[in-house]
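Limitations
The structure tokens in this dataset are predictions for the assembled complex, not deposited experimental models. Users should treat interface geometry with appropriate caution, especially where small molecules or nucleic acid strands are included. An illustrative entry is reproduced here so readers can see what is and is not provided.
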Amino acid sequence: AQSVTQLGSHVSVSEGALVLLRCNYSSSVPPYLFWYVQYPNQGLQLLLKYTSAATLVKGINGFEAEFKKSETSFHLTKPSAHMSDAAEYFCAVSPASGGSYIPTFGRGTSLIVHP
Amino acid sequence: GAGVSQSPSNKVTEKGKDVELRCDPISGHTALYWYRQSLGQGLEFLIYFQGNSAPDKSGLPSDRFSAERTGGSVSTLTIQRTQQEDSAVYLCASSSRTGKGDIQYFGAGTRLSVL
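Predicted assembly:
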């Protein structure tokens, strides 16, 4: 069974400050990992995806995430927050083996950016 | 089409009525997912279609919920005898392959309000 935990339902940062959104997963084997972003009244769109090719994954809009197997973590970071980054962020895990093709999503973290 | 299309974007209904929600996936995508998004609860998997295979209905919360996918393309999610707890945003996603770790493309969702 797989699961995803996103620490903090809300994260508040000032514009220009570092963004850190936390995600920990539970899986019997290293899975595929994703970060999706959801802007108000829109569907989710992919920020980045981990596929085991590299532990540091770069995504769109200046975001990146680092896969740490020893910590079972896949935290999302951005060096400098912009007002347009305010959105809901979801971490998701998809099994790399076994019969299921269905990803599991975390509960989401709402990023608030203050001027 | 250019993306996943869902209709209607908003639906208000009275308790006890039936509702139908429609999803048009990206052309050529063989996999289609329905999720329910409630405030603070993340994405709850409902049902998964892949090609002509029998759908995975393991996430449907009750027998009031059903879904079909005609011709391997358009899908309809039906909720019978709606209850107030059915109020949520219903998201549809599609992906292009059956392999592990496929990227999902989401529609903007249908916001269902049951009065």
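Some entries come with short summary sentences. For this one: The longest strand of chain B covers residues 43-50.
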